[in-house]
Amino acid sequence: MTQEIPVYLFTGFLDAGKTKFIQETLEDVRFNNGESTLLLLCEEGEEEYDPSTFSGHNVFIELIEDQAELTPQNLERLQKKHAVERVVVEFNGMWMLDALYQNMPEAWIVYQEFLFADARTFLTYNANMRGLVVDKLKSCEMVVLNRADEKIDKVEIHKIIRAVSRRTNIAYEDLSGEVYYDDTPDELPYDINAPVIQITPENYAIWYQDISEEPDKYKGKTLEIGGFVMLRDKLPAGSFIFGRRVMTCCIEDITFAGLLCTGYDVKNLQDGQWIQLTAKVTVKHNRVYNKKGPMLNVQSVEPGVAPEDDVATFY
Questions:
Q1: DSSP state, 62?
Q2: For the chain, how are helix, strand and coil distributed in percent, rounded to 5?
Q3: Is the Cβ–Cβ distance between 274 and 226 less than 8 Å?
Q4: Concatenated DSSP letters for 227-239?
Q5: pLDDT per residue over 23-73, tens digit each?
Q6: CA 120 vs CA 16, 144, 150, 153, 172: distances in Å
Q7: Which of 3, 37, 233, 263 has its CA 20 to 30 A from that of 54?
Q8: In whole angstroms, what is the distance from residue 92 CA to residue 95 CA?
Q9: DSSP 8-class letter at 3
């Protein structure tokens, strides 16, 4: 059996604090107690590493200068070259994460992923390079915003991060080095405890994200929502896909976001038809998702009308 190689992934743009954090982490005996570690540098910033202060001296640094070097063969070669037990990656913020995720050797498993950002420039990066920011937010467990002073707009930052993930933790490091966590409440724009949860067109994207991330929260609840029908030949009998197109950051990333509906005679439906759906949520494994997920048990279907903007957004 192939030995699993834990990967600790640190993303962010230049001068975001990645190098400083990784340096301090490798100096900490609680993390670095002599384990053989491959430190992959996908960019060279102003700050340099000082291996002489690492807690364990079994850290091997390799530079990845071009995305073309991120191949399974090359990464596995570097792993075997140093016979390492784990990998730490300082990722280039201008590269898309799929360049790494799609090319990791089979044994490499991302254990933790952190995004580092300068709180003073985060909104500017988001405005000018939204696609790259979303790419780094979509799978990280925590965003660390350093150099946070009283002038930064924490509400706007919170909204931007939550538009991509409602599970990512948000931490701030102020100018004195003190770290504190974001406490902005994540209130849903609809009453999840209502007898029938009403999902309006402007709240579709938030609802879809929330039910996808925390399906058990909706288990057994009834909701009313508008969207369109997708009919496919290979679906189970009495089933169809219900959803809308959703845009996370820009036109290029518009995708269909929908769920499997069951318990309805699809002969009464047309592909692409807009409907107003009332359904009860169940959560179970099914072959359409190929995993456990939320499903909508149809209670009623009424004719619907496409909203003026048929692409749902987060804000």
A1: E
A2: 25, 35, 40
A3: yes
A4: EEEE--TTSPTTE
A5: 999 999 999 888 999 999 998 877 899 999 999 889 999 999 999 999 999
A6: 10, 12, 10, 9, 11
A7: 3
A8: 6
A9: P
**Strands 197-199 and 37-41, sheet pairing:** unpaired
Residue 178 phi/psi, 5° resolution?
Answer: -75, 135
Residue 10 near residue 22 (C-beta atoms within 8 A): yes
How many angstroms separate the CA atoms of 47 and 212, rounded?
A: 40
User: According to DSSP H, which parts of 83-177 are helical?
Assistant: 98-101, 122-128, 130-137, 154-162
Phi and psi at residue 179, in whole multiples of 5°?
Answer: -105, 135
Pairing of strands 311-312, 179-181: unpaired
Number of neighbouring beta carbons within 10 Å of residue 227:
27
What's the pTM value of the predicted model, to 2 decimals? 0.71
**Rounded-to-integer distance, Cα 181 and Cα 137, Å:** 17
pLDDT, tens digit (0-9, with 9 covering 90-100), for 90-99: 999 999 999 9
> Closest Cα partner for 307 from 223, 216, 200, 220?
200
